[in-house]
């Protein structure tokens, strides 16, 4: 039973001035408070997919809503500004098709990216590398955007450790930029995800970038260790994650680290754990995690059941990356976070 009078929340069909379903309801829930939001877990996926279609970023959106508590007109103006100053008719159609529980399928514009051998490797190891998914020129433009945002110089190591940086650990909260957006909408990357999901009605996340400089005597790795970014409530639905290397990245250069093949026994492993053991606190180092070396422009997709992390950078150059993921917005999700 809901503990809150639903009538004081905006209806999902109240479109405001944008013509987008669910947007005003998303706002009204956030303004009402987290306790109210938690009473509608079935809407989490819809709200987050709406934000991704608009390209405004989950963290910036919720920080603005909870931090500023704006009026709805101010929120609409903020959404439009962060969506590039204009929301296209096609984007509005995508948002409303999502609310109406309709899939928006797209015709393939390029041939398959992943080979049969790639698909076998994926099934066995839980990850796959798409070589040269992005051009060297686009990698260079993206690196410049990230370094400019951080007010650092890629070629000057004295700038890599500046105090007061906007970094969050090794994460860079740069969400929208022409170069970053171009990578995010790479047809090659999208087609690879479509093959893995075996569907074309996918949407892309508006996610962060990453900067992992070499360790020094005074600067140590700021990662969080092997972890999952998905609820461990079983059964865990299929899901993916992805990372674009913008620099050539050696195994000792802060490379993405995963436990290959763990997706094939994850759920049985969870069932076999003693009841008092929190799976997120288990030391996973004995499962032979490996760092994945790849070149600038290579894109790595991994099954979200794989424990993963970046790693300490023991090399002489920073690792610069972009995170992005294409996913099915109407796919099953676990509303309970464990």
* CATH top level class name of the largest domain: Mainly Beta
Strand order of the largest sheet: 1-8-5-10-4-2
Number of domains: 2
Distance between the termini: 22 Å
How many DSSP E strands? 11
Indicate the percent of residues in helices.
25-40%
How would you characterize this protein structure?
The protein is an alpha+beta fold and 338 residues long. The protein folds into two domains: 6-99, no CATH class; 116-327, q2cbj1_9rhob like domain (Jelly Rolls), CATH 2.60.120.620. Helix content is 32%, strand content 11%. It has eleven helices and eleven strands. It has helices spanning 23-32, 34-37, 44-54, 58-68, 72-82, 89-99, 116-125, 136-150, 178-184, 187-197, 266-272; strands at residues 127-130, 171-172, 203-204, 209-212, 240-245, 257-258, 290-291, 299-303, 308-309, 319-323, 326-327. Strands 1-8-5-10-4-2 form a six-stranded antiparallel β-sheet. A three-stranded antiparallel β-sheet has the order 7-6-9, with no helix packed on it. A two-stranded antiparallel sheet has the order 3-11. Helix 3 runs antiparallel to helix 6. The radius of gyration is 21 Å and the shape is globular. The two termini are 22 Å apart.
Name its key features.
single chain, 338 residues, alpha+beta, Jelly Rolls, 2 domains, six-stranded antiparallel sheet, three-stranded antiparallel sheet, 11 helices, 11 strands, globular, disordered N terminus
